[in-house]
Amino acid sequence: MIRYNLSCDNGHGFEGWFSSSDDFDRQSKGHLVTCPTCGSASVGKQLMAPTVSTARKKDARQALVMDQAQKETITKLRDMVKTIRANAEDVGERFPEEARKIHYGEAEQRGLIGKATADEASALIEEGIEIAPLPVLPDDTN
Predict the structure, then answer these.
(1) What is the side-by-side order of every strand in the sheet holding 43-45?
(2) E strands, 9-46, where?
(3) CA geometry: angle 12, 18, 19, nearest 5 deg
(4) Which helix (H) or strand (E) holds 9?
(5) pTM of the model as a whole
(6) CA distance 113 to 133
(7) What share of the chain is helix, strand, coil (3-state, %, to 5)?
(8) What is the pLDDT confidence band of residue 140, given thresholds at 50, 70 and 90?
């Protein structure tokens, strides 16, 4: 995984994790990388110092220490994701196909969640189908 320091055209800084540089490029081109503060899809990489791996660093674990405002934000995001999941049909790998059916009037309008590759997501966006990734929150991966 590659961690990039990113910023939007409104000057908000944040970080993003990607499987490769190409993965960032594909997601950025498909407007899938958006600012968590303002939602802008005009996002770019910022200058970063290289990470040097040492034996001491390998023993350390990454941790996030949150202040109260960050904890409240994570709780709100978690509640939002829970509400979305409770009110949407999980179609798994069929997400691109089902999203197209709804968009083109071949299936009833309903909320969907599922999986799509970066290329599939880009294609959906290019067709004018509104999609958004669900955030992965700290407790979801720990």
Answers:
(1) 13-18, 2-8, 43-45
(2) 13-18, 43-45
(3) 175
(4) none
(5) 0.51
(6) 9
(7) 40, 15, 45
(8) low
1-56 confidence digits (pLDDT tens) = 688 889 999 889 888 888 888 888 889 888 899 998 898 999 988 876 555 556 55
Beta-strand runs (E) in the chain: 2-8, 13-18, 43-45, 89-90, 112-113
Whole-number Å distance between alpha carbons of 61 and 12: 27
- The DSSP string of 54-105 is -HHHHH--------HHHHHHHHHHHHHHHHHHHTSEE-GGGHHHHHHHHHTT
CB atoms within 10 A of CB 6: 21
121 and 32 in contact (C-beta within 8 Å)? yes
pLDDT at 112 (0 to 100) = 94
Q: Residue range 108-125: average pLDDT? A: 91
What tokens appear for 23 in the block? 């993965």
